[in-house]
Amino acid sequence: MSFPVRWIGSRPGLTALQDGAVMHEALAIDIGGTKVEAAVVDAEGRILPGTRFRGPTGAAATREELVASILQTAERSIAAHGRPVSGVGIGSAGPIGRTDGTVSPINLPRLADFPVVAELRCFTSGPVELRLDGTCIALAEHWQGALRGTENSMGIVVSTGIGGGIILGSRLVPGTSGNAGHLGQMQLRRREPDAVGTPWTLEGIASGTATVAWARAQGWTGTTGEQLGADYAAGTEIAIRAVRRSAEAVGEALGSITTLLDLERVAIGGGFSRVSPDYLDLVQAAATAAALHAYARELRVVPAGLDADGPLIGAAALVLAD
């Protein structure tokens, strides 16, 4: 894997793009543990063709490489667009610092306290907004996806990690620091009393990474979520137990969250949520079983509607959506 270490063109000025009227379009940035993506999104939530670019990240990268990858990916998107944007929306793995505009992703430790808002101001004369990546996904689903029309809902991702965002009263809930929605770090009850050293968080039990690791500890010989899904479909006992263990933990967490927040709908996306055709049905059953009150049993679990486009559309919505 290679990393760009120098700027494309004449950062930070981009003076050639400063002429002409600014359309109601946003530069969207999604910073994750393995990649950064950028694209220009219009006021209807559409990713504009030819403006979507990707750069590498990763825990092994130096801080210089990470910063260069983020900024060059953003510049490539703006240059391809060819005209100014009305703002920049940033979604990032957390924690984030909403008040000081910094990001400190757990899975990118060398990027700690990176002032991403200040660094990306050069790409617009308009607002630059930063939120947690899960928050952006929830906002995207509420704006253009599976949560449209709801007042109280969540969007969550089950992938290598687990994160989410909260909508209450039809409004995004960022929290005091901007980190509301970190459901992956919720503590859950222990399931195997003889297990030692297991992180008993939702993410530590139910993420794709954790589920594969658990299955291997039971004697399964595969190495990926895709292989686990294939063995689940083939009826392999360990794979079935592993997938159900993950779905039941997610459902248990949603039962608790819904009891607290009185949600009507949760949209679930992410690669591991598709490990089996019935994964969301298993989550729904577990959430219903975990709920102690009738109102919490009314929660409906649905597939996310925007899939891999959600993080970028949600980041753009930070400056485009009403």
How do the strands and helices of this protein lay out in sequence?
Elements: E1 25-31, E2 35-42, E3 53-56, H1 63-81, E4 87-92, E5 96-97, E6 102-103, H2 116-120, E7 128-132, H3 133-144, E8 153-158, E9 162-168, E10 171-172, H4 202-206, H5 208-217, H6 225-233, H7 237-261, E11 265-269, H8 279-290, E12 300-303, H9 310-320
Parallel strand pairs: 1-4, 4-7, 8-11, 11-12
Antiparallel strand pairs: 1-2, 2-3, 5-6, 8-9, 9-10
Helix pairs in contact: 3-9, 5-7, 6-7, 7-8
Features:
alpha/beta, five-stranded mixed beta sheet, 9 helices
Structural class: alpha/beta
Order of helices and strands: EEEHEEEHEHEEEHHHHEHEH
Largest β sheet strand count, sense and barrel closure: 5 strands, mixed
Radius of gyration: 20 Å
Provide the helix percentage.
Answer: 25-40%
Distance between the termini: 40 Å
Averaged pLDDT: 89
What's the arrangement of strands in the largest beta sheet? 3-2-1-4-7
Q: Number of DSSP strands? A: 12
Shape: globular
Give the percentage of residues in beta strands: 15-25%
Uncertain segments are: 1-21
Count, helices: 9
Structure, explained:
- By secondary structure, this protein is of the alpha/beta class.
- The protein has 9 helices and 12 strands.
- The strands form 3 sheets. Strands 3-2-1-4-7 form a 5-stranded mixed β-sheet, with helices on both faces.
- Strand 8 and strand 9 form a beta hairpin.
- Helix 3 packs across helix 9 (310-320) and helix 7 packs across helix 8.
- It is globular.
- It starts with 24 loop residues before the first strand and ends with a helix.
- The relative contact order is 0.15.
